[in-house]
Amino acid sequence: MSEARRKYIENHPEEKIRLQNIAKRESKRIKTICKKCGKEIYVFPYRYKKEGNFCSKNCSNKYRSEIMSRKMKGRKVSEATKNKLKQYIREKASNWKGGKPKCKICNKEINYRATYCLNHKHLLWNREKWEKAWNGSREKRVGKMPKNMQRPGKWRNVESGYFDINSKEMFFRSKWEANYALYLDFLIKQKQIKKWEYEPDVFIFEKIKFGTRSYRPDFKVYNLDGSITYNEIKGYMDAQSKTKIKRMARYYPDIKLIIIDKDIYYDIKKKLGKLLKFY
Hints:
two-stranded antiparallel ribbon, alpha+beta, four-stranded mixed beta sheet, 3 domains
């Protein structure tokens, strides 16, 4: 161990504890021999097997294949098996002589469903045709709303459903959204906003070809001065939500978006939750 490493361990006690735990774990391992290649290996007690252990998955597969080949040696292949293999090898059953199929170019053994080996796999599908089909399907989706955004429906969220918002039954994707709708109605009564709508607009990111290509904010709020703001309820900000907000700011910089996170929501709930009878 170098002096720099020793000094680092002395200045960081958590690293010293980690190394001690590793040493304890290593001391519990059992010394044994690989059943296939005879290499010395160390195995944890819960992985130790009396019938034999292996140093790698490759050795384990080879050992099992040898056993199976011994069991199958001398057996005749039935006509039913030949007919099944005919589908994989793409040859006539009468011409099959046993073994795996071979590549048509280099005569290398390949899997039953394959036609060429990995080196000549590109010949199965012309690259120009592949690029044309790939770009064609990509261009069809540009500037179009995804199908899951075109139709309204319940999400798998447990809290989604229909809620009574001041004698109006409305569908919301979560209780937080339903409670925020009650809060917006309260702001209308206080004459702080004109009105609000739930998920009326969808913004399409026309230049994006894959991934997050659209965004539907939760609430559209009409202010007294005639301006419009969009409010998004986010208790947890996942990766997809971050991408939506970033692309919204990039492609629609004139649209004002307000994120109602859990701190703002709980502050509203603490002040007005009992008064507005939050769910």
